[in-house]
Specification:
The complex is a heterodimer.
Chain A (H helix, E strand, L loop, with lengths): L1 H7 L6 H4 L3 E14 L2 E14 L3 E5 L6 H8 L7 E6 L4 H6 L3 E4 L11 H12 L3 H14 L15 H14 L4 E5 L7 H18 L2 E6 L2 H7 L2 E6 L4 E7 L14 H16 L6
Parallel strand pairs in A: 3-7, 3-8, 5-6, 6-7
Antiparallel strand pairs in A: 1-2, 1-4, 8-9
Helix pairs in contact in A: 5-6, 5-7, 6-7, 9-10
Chain B lengths: L1 H6 L5 H18 L1 E3 L3 E2 L4 H18 L6 H24 L6 H22 L6 H30 L9 H10 L1 H36 L1 H16 L2 H12 L3 H24 L4 H9 L4 H35 L9 H10 L3 H29 L4 H4 L3
Antiparallel strand pairs in B: 1-2
Helix pairs in contact in B: 2-3, 2-5, 3-4, 4-5, 4-6, 5-6, 7-15, 8-9, 8-11, 8-13, 8-14, 9-11, 10-11, 11-13, 13-15, 14-15
Classes of the chains: A alpha/beta, B mainly alpha.
């Protein structure tokens, strides 16, 4: 554990070259919500570095601050202490630069827009020319295997297809960073497995940096190159596990001993961090 | 046990109606139809016609003609019977007795039976099916008018109390220029212009109220107050301010339509959920982009609710406002003066025009709503 924590801390020695590759850098980050029942420490002393091309999962029980941390990266929440940079600038500036694509727990597609027009939504806001929009729509719908559904309305598609459309919408912005907040949480396990595989292929194809929030251990281990275990009260990082599984993996890998070893370590981390306490 | 259940007679509405038709026709043939002593068979065509109706009823009760051809025959006989009965009733106004009323009931039951049978039709052709679906409310309305006509002429109700539909129709067709002038004055000017200004300004104010918090606290209570003002009190003041012609009526319409539109639009704009707003935030969308791409579409079901409510409110407002000073034209003016002159048929003709115009206006807004909010769960089922 000491090793991994050390890895996370910024290394001043080779920082000059390394800094540019760090997509997210948080130092001593904290966030306290003021509620009627007193302050709630959602995040406390978070030190985290996410490098370019990483697939990082935040795992932990409800209330551990994993979604809050993702929202801080996305500038949807404001930290109350410490510092954080996204692509070397503040999260606010990164959001204005449209540096990331965000996939929510629900698809959040607009029912009055067709699938193609939903994917076009961020492109319209960015003010891209129509031809460019059209090209990005077809490319990204193709990437999530939704070609041919352009003219359908969201409510005519299944939950899994809706979520895929929302991923296409996030990708259409062509961000280097993809933030995903339990995107498959509402789907059944069969669909979820399938989408996990597709997501991995997408990651391999596009070489984007992905930050993925989940509360499923198999999902986190299967997808990630780095697993961040968070614990509640106050929300903090308990362990960071580097996965040595090959980048190119299939669902079968879940039966290998390496996979189970990592999953075991995640579970131990959750246990030691009192994640299973009431 | 089995014999018991076999002997149980099964009553359904249709066979009860058929039995009712037969019974009424039998009663009608046995009693006097009109004072002093005129029987149904003194009018052979009527007797024959209702004989047919009874025969169809008997056939239905015996289990024959439970098919489309039988239903169509029933429809044709019912309609011709109605026509004949109305023609005969006009020859003896106010003299109707038991036999006549029995025929009226028989006619009513036969129409009911016809609609009942028609509603059960299942047509493979969608155009025909839609036509039949349309025919049912039309038949319903026609039955109502026929019974009104027969009731009023048979019982000899004074015209001042309730004119027959035929008299209203005659008045309607002979006074087209007057009615058109009134329609132009009240509907095309006061209602439409007032509605457009009232709804339009309320929409703009709603967006302002939504954007500026202190306006919400200041303007909404004032809007509430204005909506509570009695139209009876406001109308004469508007006449003093804006003169006798249509602008004062349009002003009343604006006051009546403003608040429903304001309140509905404000709550519609608040309809977005946190995730949708966050989504727009991640795109660094500005206020106007979020307004046009997310919040206004979300508000549309609310806005159309207000537009529909206002379509009827506007007409009521304009007509009532004309009671308080107006040039010698307008639907409200006509109603108030013709009532004074005991020309109740003209009043009814104006009411018919107002009802038709109001329904068409509402229907138009509802159609527009369906086109705009097709995506809303309440509309999807109708697609």
């Amino acid at each position: 554990m000491a090793e991994t924590m050390e890895r996370l801390l910024p290394r001043d020695g080779d920082g000059g070259t390394k800094m540019t590759n760090n997509v997210v850098e948080a130092k001593n980050l904290s966030l306290t919500f003021q509620t009627n029942d007193g302050p709630v420490h959602a995040l406390s002393e978070i030190d985290l570095t996410i490098e370019e091309g990483d697939f990082v999962s935040f795992i932990g029980p409800s209330g551990c601050g994993k979604t809050t941390l993702l929202r801080v990266i996305a500038d949807l929440e404001q930290p109350t202490g410490g510092s954080i940079t996204v692509n070397g600038v503040s999260p606010h500036q990164a959001r204005l630069n449209r540096a990331y694509g965000y996939v929510f727990q629900a698809a959040a597609l607009y029912p009055w827009r067709t699938i193609a027009k939903n994917v076009a939504l961020p492109l319209e806001i960015m003010g891209l020319p129509a031809s460019e929009q059209q090209q990005r729509i077809s490319k990204n719908l193709d990437l999530v295997n939704l070609s041919g559904f352009e003219k359908k309305y969201p409510w005519q598609l299944s939950g899994g297809m809706q979520q895929r459309a929302s991923i296409a919408r996030a990708l259409a912005v062509e961000p280097d960073l993809l933030l995903m907040d339990e995107p498959f949480g509402a789907l059944d396990e069969i669909v979820r497995d399938h989408l996990n595989e597709q997501l991995l292929q997408l990651w391999a194809k596009t070489n984007k940096t992905v930050v993925f929030v989940t509360h499923s251990i198999p999902e986190a281990v299967f997808l990630s190159s780095k697993i961040v275990v968070l614990c509640p009260r106050p929300g903090r990082i308990y362990d960071v596990i580097e996965s040595n599984l090959p980048r190119d993996r299939s669902l079968d890998i879940r039966e290998t001993s390496e996979f189970l070893e990592i999953a075991h370590r995640v579970r131990e981390g959750l246990k030691a961090g009192h994640a299973y306490d009431d | 046990m089995s014999s018991l259940s076999d002997r149980r007679v099964r009553f359904d509405t249709a066979s009860l109606l058929a039995a009712g038709v037969i019974l009424c026709v039998v009663v009608a043939l046995a009693t006097t139809a009109f004072l002093p002593d005129r029987y149904v068979f003194n009018t052979p065509s009527l007797a024959i016609q209702f004989g047919f109706l009874a025969i169809l009823g008997v056939r239905y009760s015996l289990g024959f003609a439970h098919n489309m051809a039988g239903d169509i025959a029933l429809g044709i006989v019912s309609v011709t019977s109605a026509w004949l009965l109305i023609a005969v009733a006009h020859s003896y106004p106010g003299d109707a007795t038991t036999g006549f009323w029995a025929l009226v009931v028989a006619l009513w039951l036969s129409f009911w039976l016809f609609v009942e049978r028609l509603a059960a039709w299942s047509l493979p052709n969608p155009t025909l099916a839609r036509l039949v679906n349309l025919a049912i409310p039309v038949l319903f309305g026609a039955t109502f008018l026929i019974l009104w006509e027969l009731g009023v002429t048979g019982a000899g109700v004074p015209r001042v109390l309730l004119p027959a539909p035929s008299e209203i129709w005659i008045r309607l067709t002979t006074s087209v220029p007057t009615l058109w002038a009134d329609f132009q004055q009240t509907f095309l000017k006061a209602v439409l212009i007032g509605y457009a200004i009232g709804c339009g300004s309320a929409f703009v104010v709603a967006i302002l109220v939504d954007r500026v918090p202190f306006l919400r606290r200041g303007l909404l209570p004032i809007g509430n107050l204005v909506s509570a003002l009695p139209i009876i009190g406001v109308a004469p003041i508007m006449v003093m301010w804006f003169g006798f012609d249509w602008p004062s009526k349009a002003a009343v319409v604006i006051i009546m339509t403003f608040f429903p539109m304001l309140v509905n639009t404000v709550s519609g704009l608040a309809e977005t959920d946190a995730m949708q707003r966050d989504l727009m935030r991640t795109y660094a969308s500005n206020y106007w982009q979020t307004l046009f791409k997310l919040r206004l579409p979300m508000a549309m079901p609310f806005i159309f609710n207000a537009l529909k409510i206002n379509s009827t409110l506007a007409l009521i407002g304009a007509i009532v406002a004309e009671f308080f000073g107006t040039p010698i034209v307008g639907m409200g003016f006509r109603i108030s003066t013709e009532v004074g002159r005991m020309n109740v048929d003209m009043v009814w003709a104006e009411i018919a025009v107002a009802a038709l115009a109001g329904s068409l206006f509402y229907g138009f807004v509802a159609l527009l709503e369906r086109a705009v909010t097709f995506w809303h769960p309440s509309m999807r089922a109708k697609m």
